[in-house]
From TrEMBL:
The lineage of its organism: Bacteria, Pseudomonadati, Bacteroidota, Chitinophagia, Chitinophagales. It is found in: Cell outer membrane. It comes from the Bacteria. InterPro entries: Beta-barrel_TonB, Beta-barrel_TonB_sf, CarboxyPept-like_regulatory, Plug_dom, Plug_dom_sf, TonB-dep_OMP_SusC/RagA, TonB-dep_OMP_SusC/RagA_CS, TonB-dep_rcpt-like. Residues 393-420 are annotated as: Disordered. Its main location: membrane. NCBIfam families: OMP_RagA_SusC, SusC_RagA_signa. The keyword Transmembrane applies. GO terms for cellular component: cell outer membrane. Residues 402-981 form the TonB-dependent receptor-like beta-barrel domain. It comes from Chitinophaga niastensis. Residues 118-222 form the TonB-dependent receptor plug domain. This is TonB-linked SusC/RagA family outer membrane protein. It is a multi-pass membrane protein. The keyword Membrane applies.
């Protein structure tokens, strides 16, 4: 009986204890956000000293059964682990602090964002800090120079309004348009119409895995630009203003001493025929040597006449802030840029408004609006003016303005050639104002249907208008004067005032919708699925008109012209529709997988060939998440991730209607003995053309070391483009028909990229260094057999060579005497060479030098790209330097400003004062000859120059004034000085080694060195 009673009491006691424990357990909900208020998905929330736990949902919420005595343990990649005692708290709101690591950085990717730690594709993100945003960059496209591995940025011109750079991502993969796909806030637009101060970040998607969500638009890479948004809290007002001056980085170097010039021209006259009469008398040469009046006896340096010092000023004001429901960011920007060439300038106005509003906890709406207005002023085509400017001499007085008015100079001596140009006359009497307007508007709505499921719809319109007038004043081509004799030196036909006008519009409409679902299965499996569709249309119009003879030089309107009215116009439309999807999966934040699929349909191909399907796959492995690896890796290794990807992309960047026969109207025919209007064919069609195809593979590794002070990324890639659309030659039987496109070309780009960075501080001193280097090898695998296609001058396309390789004869030296000529292989088809001519290598040893002896003289596409960033700071002082460079590139440099073949009345480059003569045999420069003698100016290795360069692209020194110095209403005052294109190290002798197309000659508007001072104030 006692035993039974004891057992009963024991059972009763256990039940009481269990009941008490059960009563202590309760349901707890909570949410987890970061310090900025962003909800965090996938945070592990566990009960300390137990195996019980959960993860946060898409809205950052969690639910657990706990007791008041429990302690929660929260952990998430990129954030510090946190323990929180429950006590008697109800709905818990927990904030996690980001760890001191770059792994928690958010990177913009296609149709969304990802944390850097979770990326499996090749993506480079450029964050625009205070140093970047205060750089006086007149075009955003130039801001990426040296900032991203595998990204080449080349600014070909410093002309106001034409500074836009050419961007190439991982080389040149096509023989057509190789520009990357540019998106601003998710919509295709222009980098040139985005204010640098408005940019939050730029992401560059380089491999197919990262870019395939954009399908056919992404074959040349993708650049995603995200503009700033407002943040909840106090309204912030910011002002940035600067003033700067600019000079050419380099100018041509002509002989400016006219006496020396005349002596050189006498040498040219008798170079091939010693019996020729010398054009310049010794008396004329002596008169210039002894003269003191340089107006009548000028030694004109035309570079000093055409170019001077430019100036620029810029002002940006921005306002941002928000409430719990609404956030906003607005900016106004003004830029005035006066160029270094007379009559070149630009005024630019920009406005941006980004706003977001939360209608409810489930519905959000937003809008991005941007307006741009630009007015560019220039004479007629600057490149043409500079080319023609070489057709003058230092013996011309540019102009004289006196009681007789303004008169432009011609030759001042009868010895000189009578047909001379006066480039100043063109610059001052020809005008081509250009006005550009862009209106960009995007609206979006987002609906959180259920936890983890979001639907977003976006609509955008991008309207772009260009209006341009080209007019010449009445008598713009006027007589040119001999100021020594005060008579007309050159009688020219008097042209009436003329006006040509162009107006074009482009309306780009975009619609896309996405459905995004995020799901976690337990604590280990995390899924994100995206599905969407997009539709785009681009409608363009073009109107042209011209008229002549105006009553005055002040009525530049078409209706005011009196003679020769002409009009023309056209329009076009392009459409593309797409369906796309993406699946992301990660297991324990250890194994990361991503798959993309996109189907595009383009109106540039005929029905039946309009659609292409583009898949990609990528995977990544975070090694330190493996216990067996983490245990053997040193503690100073914080993260190691291995990535691999493969994908296929398309390209349809060829002219519209290329699959159709095209005809030209306005062609007259004789029909039945009378003239009848008709059509004539222009282009032969190929209805079977279809997408170019790019297959890309990538293998990469990312590592963070020394508590994230040091990071390194290395990628190896292979980019194979096939079915490239090429225009092959037609038989002469087809007359002047333009040949059709055919899918025949194949181009490979293989290479590797390395980027490294180190940042640290010691007390008040902080410092950092980061750099990147890329090696890219370009090769034309298939073109048209052994045939050679010419791109420009000595630049050709040939199978087995890089695109635009230089093709010509190998120079072995210079003939020193007649015996030297006689002993060499025959080079001329008629006659013999003379001492001072080049010796060319007989490559096939047939004793004759001809076209069969030409060789590959070098690549015009660089093999090496690199950038280097250095920064240091002490208390309020900051210093930042950016270096940019390319290597392994050649450029063919022979043009009107640099040649040994001289026409009468043309400039002579000062370098050719060292040309070969019997008294100057130890030189590598050939003798000076008349331009008709092409022995030395045919394509050969002498004219091939090393265009590699290193440039100090930007240097900035700034000082942030201590807040105690100024009123408390101000948050910050920062003053700075900045130099753009400060120094350049190169062997290239042309205007500038930084060019958009290395196959082109060197005559362009020079790049500029800009020195600015500015202030940034935040209220």
């Amino acid at each position: 009986m006692k035993k039974l009673l004891g057992a009963s009491l024991c059972i009763w006691g256990i039940c009481v204890v269990q009941t008490a424990i059960a009563q202590e357990k309760r349901s707890l909900t909570g949410s987890v956000k970061d310090a900025q208020g962003t909800t965090l998905l996938g945070v592990t929330v566990g009960i300390k000293n137990t195996s019980i736990g959960t993860v946060t949902s898409a809205d950052g919420k969690f639910h657990l059964n706990i007791s008041d005595k429990d302690t929660l343990v929260l952990s998430f990649v990129g954030f510090n682990k946190k323990e929180v005692a429950v006590n008697k708290q109800g709905d818990m709101k927990i904030i996690l602090e980001a760890t001191a690591t770059s792994l928690n950085e958010t990177v913009v990717v296609g149709y969304g964002v990802q944390k850097k730690v979770n990326l499996s594709g090749a993506v480079t993100s450029v964050n625009f800090d205070k140093t970047m945003q205060s750089r006086p960059v007149t075009d955003l496209s130039t801001a990426l120079s040296g900032m991203a591995p595998g990204v080449s940025v080349s600014q070909a011109s410093g002309q106001p309004g034409r500074e836009n750079a050419t961007i190439r991502i991982r080389g040149v993969g096509t023989l057509n348009n190789a520009d990357p796909f540019i998106l601003v806030d998710g919509i295709e637009s222009s980098m040139s119409d985005v204010n640098m101060a408005d940019v939050e970040s730029i992401s560059v998607l380089k491999d197919a895995a990262a870019a395939a969500i954009y399908g056919s638009r992404a074959a040349n890479g993708v650049v995603l630009i995200s503009t700033k948004k407002g943040k909840k809290g106090k309204t912030t007002v910011s002002y940035n203003g600067y003033y700067g001056v600019q000079k050419a980085t380099r100018l041509f170097n002509p002989v400016s001493d006219y006496a020396t010039y005349m002596q050189l021209m006498n040498r040219v006259a008798v170079a091939d025929n010693p019996s020729n009469t010398l054009p310049f008398k010794q008396a004329t040469i002596d008169s210039w040597k002894n003269a003191t009046d340089r107006t009548l006896y000028p030694n004109t340096d035309w570079m000093g006449v055409l170019f001077g010092q430019g100036k620029m000023t810029g002002h940006t004001v921005s306002v941002s802030g928000g409430s719990d429901k609404t956030t906003y960011y607005m900016s106004l920007d003004y830029l005035h840029n006066e160029g270094i060439m007379k009559n070149t300038s630009q005024d630019r106005y920009m406005m941006r408004l980004n706003a977001d509003h939360e209608i409810s906890k489930k519905i959000k709406v937003g809008a991005n609006i941007a307006l741009t207005w630009k007015e560019r002023r220039e004479p007629q085509d600057v490149g043409t003016i500079l080319t023609n400017a070489a057709s003058t001499t230092p013996g011309i007085t540019p102009k004289i303005t006196d009681a007789n008015g303004t008169r432009y100079g011609g030759r001042n001596t009868d010895d000189e050639n009578g047909q001379l140009d006066n480039p100043l006359q063109y610059i001052e009497t020809w005008n081509r104002p250009n006005r550009q307007q862009r209106t960009f508007a995007k609206v979006y709505g987002e609906w959180s249907i259920i936890d983890g499921l979001k639907f977003q719809v976006n609509g955008a319109a991008d309207y772009f208008n260009v209006a341009q007038k080209s007019y010449a004043l009445a008598g713009a081509i006027q007589n040119r004067w001999n100021f020594q004799k005060n008579i007309v030196a050159q009688q020219l036909d008097q042209q009436p005032a003329s006006l040509a006008q162009m107006d074009s519009t482009n309306l780009h409409l975009t619609y896309f919708a996405t459905l995004n679902y995020t799901k976690n299965l337990g604590t280990d499996h995390h899924f994100n699925v995206l599905a969407g569709m997009s539709s785009e249309s681009v409608r363009g119009t073009l109107m042209t008109a011209s008229v002549q003879n105006f009553p005055t030089n002040n009525t530049w309107e078409l209706g005011a012209g009196l003679e020769q009215p002409k009009v023309g116009g056209t329009s076009d439309i392009y459409k593309i529709i797409s369906y796309f999807g993406r699946v992301n999966y990660d297991y324990k934040n250890k194994y990361l997988l991503e798959a993309n699929l996109r189907r595009d349909g383009s109106s540039k191909f005929r029905s039946g060939l309009q659609y292409g399907v583009y898949p990609s796959f990528s995977a990544a492995w975070r090694l330190l998440e493996e216990p067996f690896i983490k245990d053997v890796i040193p503690a100073w290794v914080n993260n190691v991730k291995v990535r691999a990807s493969w994908g296929k992309l398309g390209n349809d960047r060829i002219p519209l209607y290329s699959f159709m026969d095209l005809y030209s109207a306005g062609q007259n025919y004789s029909y039945g003995g009378s003239i009848a209007a008709g059509l004539t064919p222009l282009t032969m069609a190929n209805q079977n053309i279809t997408w170019e195809k790019t297959t890309s593979s990538n293998l990469g590794v990312d590592a963070n070391l020394f508590n994230d002070h040091f990071n390194v990324t290395f990628d190896v890639f292979n980019r194979h483009t096939s079915d490239i659309l090429v225009k092959l030659g037609l038989s002469s039987l087809y007359g002047g028909l333009t040949p059709p496109y055919q899918n025949v070309g194949i181009v490979d780009n293989k290479g590797w990229e390395l980027s490294m960075g180190y940042n640290n501080s010691a007390g008040d001193f902080r410092y950092g260094i980061s750099g990147n280097v890329s090696n890219i090898n370009n090769k034309v695998v298939k073109f048209q057999g052994n045939a050679i296609g010419t791109l420009s001058g000595a630049s050709v396309i040939k199978e087995g060579w890089s695109i635009g390789s230089l093709y010509g004869l190998q120079v072995a030296g210079i003939f020193q005497n007649d015996a030297d000529v006689a002993a060499w292989a025959k080079q001329r088809t008629a006659g013999t060479n003379k001492p001072g001519d080049f010796k060319f290598v007989d490559m096939n040893n047939d004793k004759v030098v001809d076209g069969a002896d030409r060789i590959n003289m070098g690549n015009t596409i660089p093999n090496w790209y690199f950038g280097l960033n250095l920064n240091a700071g002490y208390k309020g002082f900051d210093l930042a330097l950016l270096f940019q460079g390319v290597g392994g590139v050649k450029r063919y440099y022979q043009d009107n400003w640099y040649t040994s073949g001289i026409r009468a009345g043309r400039e002579i480059n000062a370098d050719f004062q060292n040309a070969w003569t019997p008294d100057n045999p130890n030189t590598n420069m050939p003798r000076l000859t008349a331009a008709a003698n092409t022995d030395n100016t045919q394509a050969n290795t002498f004219w091939v120059q090393n265009a590699s360069f290193v440039r100090l692209k930007n240097i900035q020194l700034s000082y942030t004034i201590p807040k105690k110095v100024f009123r408390s209403t101000l948050q910050s005052i920062r003053v700075y000085v900045n130099a753009q294109n400060a120094f350049t190290w190169t062997k290239f002798k042309g205007l500038d080694p930084e060019v958009s197309d290395y196959t082109q000659p060197g005559i362009q508007y020079p790049n500029v060195r800009v020195i600015t001072g500015g202030v940034n104030v935040i209220f």
